[in-house]
Design goal:
With about 280 residues, this protein is mostly helical. It is built from 17 helices and no strands. Helix 8 packs parallel to helix 11. The longest helix is centred in the N-terminal third of the chain and has 18 residues, at about 15-30. The chain is elongated and about 70 Å long.
Length: about 280
């Protein structure tokens, strides 16, 4: 009779070889050995073997490895390097998704990577993760989209992707890290008139005004800066006057704040609201 323990899945020869190679490479990397690029050649091939495996713990190992590697190495990568990470983003396992989205967010600090991630369809699985009830998944996916939204070429794609509604909802999250990432993403989408109109349509204005009541200076800064940008347009300015009766008093309170960047943005928002242009 069996012992009742779950049997370990058998590794294929190719998977076993990939594991052994990666163990050796990581040992050399962390013991001051030769510099290793995991985004090309045999190291990437080994990581891809684990990523495309049917065995959960190999997929998880690949996602974790990509996450750790990308914390230290955010160079521009090729489609071949992004493909296994994108594949892992589609995993049904939340821990695998979590590692993959962390890696994607790390790589998205690089301008070339930002563009490649969006061109390769990375937004769709990130949006799906934003809708997850898992806080870690929300933090990573929203953080990645925040980084992607700093590239002008990506902003229209993000605006049309359906991301603005969940971003607006997550700016009301009870988790400060999620709130900050979502508010940062909304701010990054306020730098052109067209995107500001799309944010207004997604219901972002009342949420941004609510964030002014936060005790967190980063949220205050993101909200005041976004509202200042929205108040640049005649239509945005009129909407703020017509629908947000608490806004002016909230901004006036920031004139005495000790956080200089919030104070400056509050004054700028008041100036834009008073503009007749």
């Amino acid at each position: 009779e069996g012992s009742g323990r779950e049997e370990e899945p058998l590794l294929a020869d190719k998977e076993r070889q990939a594991v052994n190679m990666l163990v050796d490479l990581f040992e050399r990397k962390y013991t001051g050995g030769a510099t290793v690029s995991f985004y090309e050649g045999e190291p990437l091939k080994a990581l891809s073997t684990l990523a495309y495996s049917d065995i959960y713990h190999l997929q998880l190992s690949a996602a974790t490895a990509f996450s750790e590697i990308s914390e230290m190495d955010t160079r521009p990568v090729t489609r071949e390097a992004l493909e296994p990470i994108l594949y892992l983003l589609h995993s049904p396992h939340i821990n695998v998704q979590h590692g993959a989205s962390a890696a994607m967010g790390n790589l998205a600090v690089n301008v070339e990577n930002k563009l490649l991630i969006v061109r390769m369809g990375g937004l769709e699985p990130l949006i799906r993760q934003m809708l997850s009830p898992n806080i870690d998944a929300q933090i990573n996916s929203v953080g990645c989209i925040t980084n992607l939204a700093t590239a002008e070429e990506n902003k229209m794609v993000i605006a049309k992707s359906g991301a603005l509604l969940p971003l607006t909802r997550l700016a009301r999250s009870r988790d400060l890290r999620v709130q900050r990432n979502a508010a940062g993403a909304l701010l990054n989408m306020t730098h052109s008139a067209e995107h500001r109109q799309q944010l207004i349509g997604a219901g972002a204005v009342p949420v941004l005004v609510e964030l002014l009541a936060s005790d967190d200076s980063e949220l205050q800064y993101y909200a005041t800066t976004a509202l200042s940008n929205i108040a640049v347009d005649d239509s945005g300015r009129q909407l703020l006057w017509d629908t947000q009766p608490v806004l002016v008093d909230a901004l006036i309170r920031f004139i005495d704040t000790s956080t200089i960047k919030v104070q400056c943005q509050a004054i700028l928002t008041l100036r834009n609201l008073a503009s007749d242009d």
